[in-house]
Amino acid sequence: MPTAPRSYDLIVYGDEVPGILALVSAAREYKRQTGKFLRTLLLIKASTQAGIGGHLVRGGLAYLDRSNMPESLRSRQRNAIFGYPVHIYQEFIQRSGVVDIALDAKKASTALRAMITEVGADILSQVKLDRVTMNGKNLAGLVLSNGETYLAQQFIDCTVNAELAQTVGVPRVDGFGTFGLPNAELPVTLVLETQGLTAQTLRTVEFAYIKRLTNLQDTEAQRYISIAAGQNATRIEELRKSLLEPNGNPKSLYIGSDHLDVRCRALSILYHAFRGKVMDLRNGMLFDQGNVAILSGDRLSWNALMFAVTGPQANVIAKDSKPTPEMLAEVPFLERWFKFLGAKSLVAMPELYVRHAGNVLGAIEPLSGAQMMAGGVPANEAIGTFAYHLDVRGGIPGLGNLASQKKLGNISFHEPPVFNIGIRHAILSQVRNLAVLGPGSGFEGYACGAGRIVEFNVGVGQGIGIAAAIAIRSNRVLGDITNREVRDCLVQSNKLTYIYGVDHPNESKRLDVFEVALMAPRMDWSNIALNPPGSGAATIA
Fold this sequence. Notes:
With 541 residues, this protein is an alpha/beta fold. The chain has 19 helices and 23 strands. The protein has two domains: 1-186 and 357-524, FAD/NAD(P)-binding domain (3-Layer(bba) Sandwich), CATH 3.50.50.60; 188-354, no CATH class. Strand 5 and strand 6 (138-144) form a beta hairpin. Mean pLDDT is 93; it is low at 534-541.
């Protein structure tokens, strides 16, 4: 017999870090305004035995992509290497013990659990969403596969692929469908953790191989390059030159306080030669230049092993983020290779890092790359600022050919946007009490490059949480709350960080021309009929 529905003020579906911190922000803001916490519920699809915190925790993505304040601004703000993170992100990384870059998954999960507990939120794990119930155009409740129903006034979807929004029937595109490329998608990464290989040892090994690989008399090392380059003479020369600085010095890795940056592909060449495979993601797998976090106990966390996926594949994989058998088959080879370099052991994380898996359509205020390049929302509406390259690691398959067909020429945009943050791109015009928070938000064109980064989405999430508190207290919905109202709350609570968005007018105009030429015209999605999948859901192929 079905149990009676349970009612909450706010439900967050999915446990990616931005969603958890949005829930905490909502509860805290409501407490500030009313003296009591909201009734909140966090629904997690995975088992919490491997931790709470999505791909940062179970995916082991220990190397955090931080806001990168440009040198021109940093010279005036000398203590702001990573800009000015929003208040709740700064709290999260401090409670997780982050020095600069490296996030220990266990410490992060502990910090998130504590923050959730402090606001009295309920947690339900290993849930499977069966269907939703609607109240007119608003989402009313979630029905789980076991028959339990959970009702709320406001909802936040914090899954990588906007799974809750898909269940509601919200229109969306796979891959880079906003560019007309639904099959094109960013690669997924299986994060690896080595133990016993120190950063200093790795640098010594890499330095020695750079010298060998650039020595034309070393026939064995030249054979390694030839294998990695697929016997292509032009590619061989490109790889060899890329190992050196302009002055001829080896481009050896950089060791920071808690991380190291692999600045050339010497290690990639070695691994692909060991595997006898060409170093090209188009062949399905690439051991790339690693973003490596230094953890305690001589552990190194590697964001380097990438696998190519299509847009539809990424959407399927994102449902549980589990590596496929084909991906796991690569791990024994990596274990042997890393042990050759000096590691004692290697483990692969239980979940994948899925960078992007499509986008919803019909956000109240969609966000494009050109808008980011122009500085984002106006300063007097801003709730934070974020700076990051429009980074599409692994590239967007087919985009160059599409640009050529449109006679657009150069498709590279090297100026990093420094843009002010708002919330309206994450709230849907069709279901105004539902926010989609994360890579699947209402990003268009190149905006996915910066929009997929956790730190940025935590800034949005802090705002979404505050907006939820305002909406619940005033008997409105998320879609009625403005950026300015959220900003006012941040000012009142003394939590508004420094705002420093920059308009790059030439680059933003060039990017706007590019995106407008490739993207379909915007439609008014506010009055579409929402039909859950299986009954004519409004999706775009």
